[in-house]
Amino acid sequence: MPTKPKGRKTGSAQTPANASKRPGKDPGGNVVFYRSPDGMVRLEVQLAQDTGWLTQQQMAPLFQRERSVITKHINHVFKEGELTPKSNMQNLHIGGSDKPVRCFTLDVVISVGYRLKSKRGLQFRRWCAWPCAPSTMEAMHAH
């Protein structure tokens, strides 16, 4: 029985139309890249502790909302007990910053997206759920 080739398929009828916007790897192996289908949002998703992490500053353009709105919804996610801050909020060192930056797990990002009913949030959620995204993240942690 033939085995499937490793890596991402290209030109396949099963490949999503925006496959080029799927996760990519940086040379350091700790970031995947997201680009919205309209090309207006480009994010570096930090990888740590088996998940992706975004800052509030990154979530604002993703959801097309002010940072203060993002902060309010994050606080509600934690206050209502949907998620706990301890395992979903970390201060991470990010390129271009001389001090740690507060970041939130993809679970928080997706929860905020649901609350905002954001079209871009839906697109991001689909990107996160794409079968190659988790395997790409796992492979990046190995390097």
Topology, please?
Blueprint: E1 31-35, E2 42-48, E3 51-54, H1 56-63, H2 67-79, H3 85-88, E4 89-92, E5 101-105, H4 106-116, H5 119-129, H6 132-142
Antiparallel strand pairs: 1-2, 2-3, 3-5, 4-5
Helix pairs in contact: 1-2, 2-4, 4-5
What would your notes on this structure say?
This protein has 143 residues and is an alpha+beta fold. It has one domain (24-136): Mlu1-box Binding Protein, DNA-binding Domain (Roll). Helices cover 41% and strands 17% of the residues. It contains six helices and five strands. The longest helix is centred in the middle third of the chain and has 13 residues, at 67-79. The chain is globular, with a radius of gyration of 16 Å. Mean pLDDT is 76; it is low at 1-29 and 138-143.
How many helices? The count is 6
Share of helix, binned? 40-55%
Radius of gyration from the alpha-carbon trace, in angstroms: 16 Å
Estimated structural class: alpha+beta
What is the domain tally? 1
Sheet bearing the most strands, described? 5 strands, antiparallel
- Report the count of strand segments: 5
The name of the CATH topology is Mlu1-box Binding Protein, DNA-binding Domain
Strand content: 15-25%
Order of helices and strands: EEEHHHEEHHH
- Describe the global form: globular
Separation of the first and last Cα atoms: 30 Å
The CATH class designation is: Alpha Beta
